[in-house]
Amino acid sequence: MSLEVIGMAIVIIAIMLVIGKWIRLKVPLFQSLFLPSSLIGGFLALLIGPEVIGRFGGDFLSDGGLFTASIVDIWGELPGLLINVVFASLFIGFVLPKPKEIWQTGGPQIALGYTMSWAHYVIGLLLAITILTPLFGLNPAAGALIEISFVGGHGTAAGLSGTFEDIGFEEGYDLAIGLATIGMLSGVIIGMVLVNWAARRGKTTTLDHPKDISVDQKSGVIEEQNREASGVQTTSPVSIEPLALHVGFIAVAIFIGYLILEAFVWLEEVTYGQTFNVYLFEYVPLFPMAMIGGILLQVFLAKFDKRKLVDRKTISRIQGLALDLLIISAIASLSLTVIGDHIVPFILLALAGIISNIVFFLWLGPKMIPTYWFERGIGDFGQGMGVAATGIMLMRIVDPENKTPALDAFGYKQILFEPMVGGGLVTAAAIPFIIQFGSVPVLIAALILMIAFWCLGVFHTGKMKPSDKKPD
Length: 472
Known about the structure:
Blueprint: H1 3-26, H2 28-32, H3 37-47, H4 53-56, H5 69-88, H6 99-136, H7 145-159, H8 161-166, H9 171-201, H10 215-219, H11 242-276, H12 287-304, H13 312-332, H14 336-341, H15 343-368, H16 373-398, H17 406-417, H18 425-437, H19 439-459
Helix pairs in contact: 1-3, 1-5, 1-13, 3-13, 5-7, 5-12, 5-13, 6-7, 6-15, 6-16, 6-17, 6-19, 7-9, 7-15, 7-16, 9-15, 9-16, 11-12, 15-16, 16-17, 18-19
Transmembrane segments: 6-23, 35-58, 78-97, 118-137, 175-199, 243-267, 279-301, 321-340, 346-365, 415-435, 442-462
Pfam family, one: Glt_symporter
Protein name: Sodium:glutamate symporter
């Protein structure tokens, strides 16, 4: 494809993002549901693309709806690239606290989050072993789709597209993107239902009534007097544009991750790969290694960057841009045909993910989190339904003035959570392990880990002495 077509594809998807925001401002229901603009814009692009209007528009629209097929193809490739930016950015500029502080504040979230993630594997693998594979002929790797889609989200699903192709489970990508969309949508809607329920029933100490939710939060537009800078300039534009420098740091992290992945692939090939015919790293995508590259880069910068050139807020803005473009392009290029062909397995997996998250949050949240269980646990619920951004949004709705340790605890949780599950090393390795060793051994391992973190949460973190600040 020509660079002109690639450029136009990016221009159009960015325009759809702006239209999504405009629609959100004009439709009160979307504001009340706190639907992300990227989700709205993605659905709009899907609606006027080849999967919907393209099927009913005759020959004139058959190529790609209101878009060309080549543009839609480019959108389908974007998420797999952008997820590397999202994960490489996770820890760049992030000042790591002491391990004791991480555990004291974020321990309950770590226990609950891991329990939910391992449960996704247990439930998904049980479904695959008993129903999805024997009755519907799906690849055994379908057992990992709930964790990939609900906790990992669109980015993780997109990042694993190559893995799905390598194992002959191409439909897994569209199923994963579809499940991620259902997870995010239901996470926001069900999350708001739970917030309203908690406010009316006195389950939260920071929100007395649903009407306490501010207009700013609903519209998503910050009033002028409340606006803050999105970052600071650490370099003079005369020498280098600060934004360009930060993009460069992210690129360095991704390249480090690439070198690490290639090294592991080579080591696997010359060691146990040839001897035992077991290959794992050839199925592992780049994005978890890009995250490790970001960690290594941050360690280097923390030690040698005396001028403090990295601004965390600027890194977060780049990460947010990549995530918005990732979500809208993933939804816009979704194949409804694949989902329609596997509608029963799709519904079973979606229901299993939604129900398990609700039950684990409402049942285990109060047992694992000693104080402010709703304000803190709603973040884990949101992340379990549709990535960390959904969890952060729900926490900010419940605790807009940050009176509880919810946001800090959630941030500390990611230090020990993201590198492994929700798009980390375990998520990336789960499919290769299922293919190489079978579903049953992976199921047993996931079950043991789920029980271990369950016990850790109920019998340890749930009884930890509070060190939380009290609401004013």
